[in-house]
Protein: tRNA N6-adenosine threonylcarbamoyltransferase
Organism: Priestia aryabhattai
Amino acid sequence: SKNQLILALETSCDETAAAVIRNGHEIVANVVASQIESHKRFGGVVPEIASRHHVEQITVVVEETLNQANLTFADIDAIAVTEGPGLVGALLIGVNAAKALAFAHQKPLIGVHHIAGHIYANQLIKKLEFPLLSLVVSGGHTELVYMESHGQFKVIGETRDDAAGEAYDKVARTLNLPYPGGPHIDRLAHEGEPLIDLPRAWLEEGSYDFSFSGLKSAVINTVHNAKQKGEEILPQTLAASFQASVIDVLVTKTVKAAKEYNVKQVLVAGGVAANKGLRAALEEAFAPLSNIELIIPPLSLCTDNAAMIGAAASVRFAQGKRSDMSLNANPGLDL
Ligand code: KG4
Ligand code: ZN
């Protein structure tokens, strides 16, 4: 229909989120209830706590979303939800809420892959043009995804160990910074110089895979060695050096793949796409490549949200894809 409205739910990790998306690309309402404060003192997301918060928040967040949108369930054409990957207990809350709502209000149900959601956050900014390449950098994923058309995802490279966001969070912990560490490292990096030469894992010639665990270990070793020698390394210097290594590899491989696959657009997705250094480096690298359009969503659409799930769901909806009441949380769901 001309005015398609999708209510989307996202509870895969530590944000309880709902959104209403019109015609696949327009945000009518977008509500995110963050649990970061509850997990901070544990230095990471505690699955049991995440599930409990989702249970407490999901109904409130859905109601708030419909209120903000000035809509009722009668106006909604379909209900979408993240089915995986993520924390199984957290996913279950969203999946069961979406199933209950779809059943009670007799609406179609659409399960969405979390990473498809991150990629489709870009559709809330620009019309997607194929073929395209998406750099997905989140707390759990680091992937280069090639797309020839809507809903077709080909992973051409992925991390062999830690995800980029995971490396950020672990390095932040080494520097005694609060969780999530990404934004803190980002801030420190801008106050320092990348004076320490840290490794860059290029892997085999032609590979688009990534590896960040060696870099993470190198940072930890640098800190320990300095401590033993009684030397002082500024956290700003470490943050800047770490960030320089991450960005160098991410940007170099993205540019190479974009050229090789002859893509029209490069999309950036996931929480680490909020990184100011990465955004600036990508913009600089793609500026001379006038036939490739670089799209980077605003910060609020890079980190977890339900608007992106609604955008991805609209494509599945248009393709006639529906889930039924057997929809289940799938923590290891493939893209
Ligand atoms: O996509 P996301 O919100 O959740 C997952 O699906 O994983 O990503 C969260 C990750 C965390 O590791 C966080 O530290 C990282 O994104 N992150 C950042 C920045 N903002 C969030 N990493 C680097 N720089 C940032 N500015
Ligand atoms: Zn995410």
